[in-house]
TrEMBL record:
Keyword Ribosomal protein: no
Keywords, comma-separated and alphabetical: DNA-binding, Transcription, Transcription regulation
The UniProt record lists the keyword Metal-binding: no
Cited InterPro entries: ArsR-like_HTH (IPR011991), HTH_ArsR_DNA-bd_dom (IPR001845), HTH_MetalResp_TranReg (IPR051081), UCP030050_HTH (IPR016943), WH-like_DNA-bd_sf (IPR036388), WH_DNA-bd_sf (IPR036390)
CDD domains according to UniProt: HTH_ARSR
Organism per entry: Streptococcus moroccensis
Protein name: Transcriptional regulator
Pfam families for this protein: HTH_5 (PF01022)
Gene3D superfamilies: Winged helix-like DNA-binding domain superfamily/Winged helix DNA-binding domain
Domain HTH arsR-type span(s) in chain numbering: 1-95
Amino acid sequence: MELETNQDALPVYEALASKVRLEIVQLLAKHKMNIRELADTLKLSSAITTKHIQKLEKAQLIKTERNGHQKVCSLRVEKVVIHFPKQLFSSYSTKEISIPVGHYTDYSVVPTCGLASSEEFIGPVDEPKYFIVPERMDAQIVWFTKGFLEYKSPNLLNKDEELTMMEISFEISSEFPFANDNWPSDITFFLNDIELGTWTSPGDFADIRGKYTPDWYPDNLNQYGLLKTIRIMNHGTYMDGDPISDLLISDIDPLFDTWKFKVEVKEDAKNVGGCTLFGKAFGNYDQDIKIKLFYN
C-alpha cells in the first residue's frame, strides 16, 4: 500500500495510532485468527476487539471473511509506503508534457502481454499483434514479459533555454500472470537511445484494488504499481534519490526536436519479470508518463 501525506490517507494513520491495533497487525502477520481468538490473546472483550477490527478494515489494512459462524481476519497488505511531498526546485523554470501509456511509437513484446482501456481489454490478451491496433491509443494499462515500449514527445525548450535537469515519472510494476507481490524484474530505461540505468521492480501487485482501477477490471489482475521518478542531474542519474548511473544532464543533447523514452525488459536480464505501465485511469496515481524539463 502506498500513501500520500494528505487527508485521503488519514484512515490508515488513525488505524495505526493504537497500541492494540498494532498488536493485532503483529498477530495477523503470523496467521489468520478469528475474533474470539484475537480477543482472548489481547485479553479484551469480543465487542471491543470488533471495534478495533472495524477500524483496521476501514483503512483496508486487514480483511475479514466468514468461515461458518466465525469471522476470520487476515492482513491485506505486506507493507505501507508513505510518500512525502516532492521537493520543489523553485529556482528553475519548468515545462512538462504527459504521454498516455498507449501512445507508444515503437514496440516489441513477448507474452504474457496485453492492453486495456478504462472500459475494456483491447483485443485478446497475450497476442502481441494487437499492440499495433489503432485502439491502443486508448490504453490506460499495458503489460509485457520481455521486450520494450518506446514513447516520443516534443522537446519544448527554445534554443536560448539551458536544460539543467530532467524528470521522468510513471507508475510501474513487474508483470506476472494474474499477480505476484514477490516477483522481481530488472527494467531498463533509455532516453534518446542513451541508457539511463536499470531498476528492479519488487513485484506485480493485487493485494488491494488500485485507487483508480476501473470497477470492471478483475480483482486478481495487477491493480497498481509504484510511482517512480528518474532525475537526470548535473551530478548523475537517480531513481527516487538512489543513483542508477553516472549519466549527467550535460551528456544529453538539449537541441533534439524529440525526446525518445524507452522502457525495456532485456532478454538477458538477471530478473526477467516483465513490466506493467499504468495510466491515469488505472493504479494509484492520477497521471500518465510525465516528462518535466527544468531550465534557466
